[in-house]
Structures
1.
Amino acid sequence: MLAGHFGLAAAVKAKQPSVPLWALMLSTQLLDVLFVPLLLANIETITPIDKGGYGEAIIHANYTHSLVGALLIAIVAGALAWRAWGRNSGLVIGAVAFSHWLLDLLVHRADLPILPGNLGNLPLLGFGLWAFPWLSAAMEFALIAVGGWLYFSSALQRAKEAGPAHRSWAIIAGSVTCSLLLLLLVMDFTGLTG
Ligand SMILES: [Zn+2]
């Protein structure tokens, strides 16, 4: 679900323009970024369902995507951002990093543990929206539509304040962002991304 997470980052960028865009993009995907080396090391795994298309997988990301693990990652990311760019950015980055887990909670089948390593075999979480591909794709589309629209209008607004010469740059930045979000959604839905 790359598109949905990035859509949220674009919406946050519109509301918090002082936080660097790359940091928002990275923090919204941080759990999945950390998932990659653990996947390669076989510590976390993916089991495809059927052909393994859009959302058709059970993901055993027992460390990066455990509730407590995600909170710890968000706290560390937030603390680093706080040191670099101040308190407000720290809080925003921490919240955006944790938002990844909340969005995953909606779409994942019940495969998200509470404690790292699924300690104590507590119940696994996930509302399983991925079992209804069109519904979860619609949710992702709503996220990128809102994110893209907020990003576009805030870029135009800031260009207005900065003078007419900035307007075309704002339109280019807004269009590129919206196109990339849409492209990611298509890639998500056709199973090119997770
Ligand atoms: Zn994830």
2.
Amino acid sequence: MTTAKCSVPYLDLKAQISPIRAEIDAAIADVVDNTAFILGDRLANFEKSFAEYCETPFAVGVDSGTQALHLILRAMGIGPGDEVITVPNTFIATVEAIIYTGATPVFADVNSDTWLMDPDKLAAAITPATKAIIPVHLFGHMVPWDEIVAVAGDIPIVEDACQAHGARYKGRRAGSLGRAAGFSFYPGKNLGGFGDGGGLTTADEAMVEFVMSHRHHGQGKIKNMHDAVGYTGRLDTLQAAILAVKLPHLDTWNAARRDIAAHYRARLEGKIRMPAIVADTEPVHHIFPIQAADPEGLIAKLRDEQVYCGRHYPVACNLQPALKSHIDPKTSCPIGESLCENIVSLPIFAEMTHNMVDVVCDLLL
Ligand SMILES: Cc1ncc(COP(=O)(O)O)c(C=O)c1O
């Protein structure tokens, strides 16, 4: 079959929103008509639905994925003097959440096949000060959970599921595996609002109480009594109402992403370097990453043909200037650093067509 030339956006949110626009408009109108902007039933209902979706007892909405990870760590009592291990090739937010608590981020390099946390490197990074481990389900690919658990022993594991809404490991949803998980509802995520937002899932009731109080200025069960110094950290009710409309579509959208990813793989396997998928997992392909010798050159070439790519993330966190004073200067993650340098994120979204994939692949091969 010949490929019909067309422009390929990196992501097309208009195509996602258009078929459900009337429902979203009605949900927004309902919030506005009731001036129900902060907390309330609409937020609680979304939290319940999201917990059910993730197959976890509880979900709590907060103002970002970063805040979710931060408050999870705070609820676990992590602070100055503690170490928290994560990976170098993640969004800086994973590391910021650790730094906000006063703890020290430590990096375990990733596996060169999966590009995800390497259990052997994790084992080498653990010290008596390690108080938590944050593997990242990067690109919507689930980490090799059982192997990480085997290495972690009693050390609690927090999932960074900010790119993995709906993904599964051995049948279990992202967000249901660890002590807790942080999700982002940033607009471009597989489940995204119309602004910033985030949430966490957990089975830990004490953590839920801690986060519900801390997202709301430390207010406890009694109005205007503040048991702790907290934050303006709630998920907006307007965002919760929009997310509640989108959530029932998430599995369909994720299945469509899997179909697009399969078509990319069929065309590119053996010719372009892509991450291996961990056995027994069902990824949700938030990002479709490849390795390129000259990433910026490739992106420019594709842009000239109206094909738009991204980079997630071109600089490893351990090399970020902002983090320099927070990490051990001897930190070295050669695999993660090199993967970051050469990464290109190809367009992927549920409404993408096979022809669009072919347009991209024809330019790559
Ligand atoms: C892996 C990862 N962790 C954390 C975050 C932080 O989420 P947010 O932008 O909602 O704070 C993101 C969002 O981009 C992410 O991709």
